[in-house]
């Protein structure tokens, strides 16, 4: 079972801190989990036997005991702070270098938060998503999605 949290803010440390608040709440109360798959989607996209197998794995049924491991997917959107008025190749190279540096700078903080939350036995998958200006771009993305 993979639970997820996403956060888009200017500073990756703030996003990590916020994510762990939510992840701890999920760990302590899995009844708050959100249903991510509409059950009719199985029948539309898969052969009947495959759809049934997927339903047995993903959709809990009353009285059914299922053993599962819990994992957490964390999507961190943050501001890079790189001047975007550069040639594409140069910009891509700077983004790659900056992201490596940013991620390496926050690994120990993630480990500390994981230990403090007593979640060391769970798998974590962190995805860092670079933005030029996270707060403003987040609003633009939401606005364009709501206008669809």
UniProtKB/TrEMBL annotation:
Domain of life: Bacteria
InterPro entries tied to this protein: AbpA_HamA_C
Anti-bacteriophage protein A/HamA C-terminal domain ranges (all copies): 2-144
Protein name per UniProt: Anti-bacteriophage protein A/HamA C-terminal domain-containing protein
Species: Caproiciproducens galactitolivorans
Source organism phylogeny: Bacteria, Bacillati, Bacillota, Clostridia, Eubacteriales
């Amino acid at each position: 079972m993979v639970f997820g949290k996403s956060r888009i803010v200017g500073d990756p440390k703030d996003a990590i801190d916020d994510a762990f608040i939510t992840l701890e709440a999920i760990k302590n109360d899995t009844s708050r989990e959100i249903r991510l798959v509409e059950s009719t989607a199985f029948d539309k996209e898969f052969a009947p036997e495959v759809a049934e197998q997927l339903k047995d794995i993903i959709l809990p049924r009353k009285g059914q005991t299922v053993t599962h491991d819990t994992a957490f997917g964390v999507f961190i959107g943050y501001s890079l702070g790189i001047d975007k008025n550069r040639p594409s190749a140069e910009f891509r190279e700077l983004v790659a270098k900056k992201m490596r540096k940013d991620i390496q700078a926050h690994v120990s903080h993630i480990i500390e938060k994981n230990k403090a939350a007593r979640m060391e036995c769970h798998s974590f998958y962190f995805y860092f998503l670079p933005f030029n200006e996270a707060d403003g771009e987040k609003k633009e993305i939401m606005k364009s999605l709501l206008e669809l």
